[in-house]
């Protein structure tokens, strides 16, 4: 990974390849197929960065030539996409962590209040895990992520992180104010929210563009 911009527990990624695919995702003229491909690559970059310190254990292995020290990661990790746009980032994480579990949390935004409203949550049916990675491509007001963090904390997960493609400063502040122990890894931190709580400059509605429903 390239250079990182870090402020407390917030990391903004800095990488030329990321900038390339972010440009494709932002451009109005990108087709659905181009947008999906760009999001897949951005998800790969996020997945690699967010798992660089994953828990595991050292072990001695035999190469074809001699013994050396290796590493096996632990797999008690939950990938938690915020439906539906979060689904766009799941595959890169599952490819990297094939024994992870995927926990779906579904919320939609009340267009008048910009507050999240639950429509899907089956955490009570899940087996315990040590670590959860919330995937929300667009961190705008932060409301959905705050509600998800609260639900995961109540479920008993101590290590909760958030991965986003873009984020507004207002959303970052909301998450930090609610739970200062949550780490946030973000491809790009945008300028602001507008009066309609849309991220600017943004990339439009990630869910609509990814699923072709715009």
Briefly say what this structure is.
It contains six helices and 14 strands. With 214 residues, it is of the alpha/beta class.
Describe this structure in words.
The chain has a single domain (4-211), classed as Rossmann fold. The mean pLDDT is 89. It is built from six helices and 14 strands. It has helices at residues 16-26, 32-50, 90-96, 143-155, 169-178, 206-211; strands at 4-7, 10-13, 56-62, 67-73, 77-83, 101-102, 105-109, 116-121, 131-135, 138-139, 159-167, 183-189, 192-193, 199-200. It starts with a strand and ends with a helix. Strands 1, 2, 5, 6, 7, 8, 9, 10, 11 and 12 form a ten-stranded mixed sheet that branches. It is α/β, with parallel strands linked by helices. It is globular and about 60 Å long.
Topology, element by element:
Blueprint: E1 4-7, E2 10-13, H1 16-26, H2 32-50, E3 56-62, E4 67-73, E5 77-83, H3 90-96, E6 101-102, E7 105-109, E8 116-121, E9 131-135, E10 138-139, H4 143-155, E11 159-167, H5 169-178, E12 183-189, E13 192-193, E14 199-200, H6 206-211
Parallel strand pairs: 2-12, 5-6, 5-7, 5-9, 9-11, 10-11, 11-12
Antiparallel strand pairs: 1-2, 3-4, 7-8, 13-14
């Amino acid at each position: 990974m390239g250079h990182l911009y870090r402020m407390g527990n917030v990391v903004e990624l800095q990488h030329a390849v990321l900038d390339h695919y972010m440009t494709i995702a932002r451009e109005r003229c990108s087709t659905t197929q181009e947008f999906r491909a760009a999001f897949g690559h951005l998800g790969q970059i996020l997945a690699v960065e967010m798992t660089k310190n994953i828990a595991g254990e050292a072990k001695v292995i035999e190469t074809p030539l001699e013994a050396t020290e290796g590493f096996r990661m632990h797999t008690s990790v939950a990938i938690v996409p915020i439906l539906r746009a979060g689904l766009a980032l799941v595959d890169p994480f599952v490819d990297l962590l094939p024994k992870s579990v995927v926990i779906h949390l579904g919320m939609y935004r009340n267009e008048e209040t910009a507050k999240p409203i639950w429509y899907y949550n089956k955490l009570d049916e899940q087996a315990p895990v040590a670590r959860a990675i919330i995937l929300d491509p667009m961190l705008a007001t932060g409301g959905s992520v705050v509600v998800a963090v609260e639900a995961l904390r109540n479920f008993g997960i101590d290590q909760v992180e958030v991965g986003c493609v873009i984020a507004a400063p207002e959303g970052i502040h909301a998450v930090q104010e609610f739970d200062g122990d949550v780490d946030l890894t973000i491809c790009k931190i945008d300028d602001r929210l507008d009066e309609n709580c849309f991220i600017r400059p943004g990339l439009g509605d990630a869910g609509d563009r990814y699923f072709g429903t715009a």
